[in-house]
Amino acid sequence: MNPNTEYERFTQEIYRQLGQATRVNAADVQHNVKLEGRSGQKHQIDVYWEYEKDGKTHRVAIECKNYSRRISLEKVCAFKGVLDDLYGVSGIMVSKVGFQKGAKKYAQQYGISLKELRSPQYGETIIGEVENHFHIEMRHTLFLIDEDWAAKINLNLQRYREFYASFDFTNADYWKTADYLPLETKDHIIRDAQGNRISSLDELEKQIPDHPTDDFPFVFKFDDAYLESRHFGPVKIREVKYTYEVEDETKTIALDAGSLVKAILKDAQSNETDFVALD
Q1: What CA–CA distance (Å, rounded) separates 197 from 199?
Q2: Other C-beta atoms within 10 Å of 197: how many?
């Protein structure tokens, strides 16, 4: 379909929908109508809207301008000439991109309504914002792995640091040089080299508060201690470190009605804007 005809059809549909929404007693909004003027000349009208309100019949000719630039004074003057030749027909001119200053002034003088009508663009249908406040407290359990022991069994701690850095882009630089590292353990039991139970992570945690204090981080030191890890087997640790992280964050979420809006209709003179909803 020709782009100009598509815009005319779009305008026809929007004004048909507006007529239903305002509950005026309207006949169907028509496209591409010929109206005969006083001069006997027949004028092509892009969209013709006839409705009854308060016992009076209103006849409206709608001129559609599918232009990529603002509509000039000359175009509005030409449309006024058509309206002057018709019997009791008021006029609306619609455009996607608006009107020049002289066109607005002239249309206001002669009672021609100017409208910007288009499909919504990104960000034009924001109807409100909601602020969400987040307070997050996180306690981390980290381990100082015995590097001499790791070297003897060929456990590459630097590669292990790089592994964590690849999953945490925000703190990648920190993990690449970190002394204390996370460990995924099979159980929480801390054992000596002979496998005898020394303590457990659960017992250590009972010694620290549930919420942050000035004493954080809490560090527990060991001379001969191992944890059973899921990936490396027994891992010799020198320290268990508990840290606390508190984050207060505010996020603003825009309420966008874009999925519900079919068109934006803006009065070029008053700048009042209406959202035309989907059927």
Answers
A1: 6
A2: 9
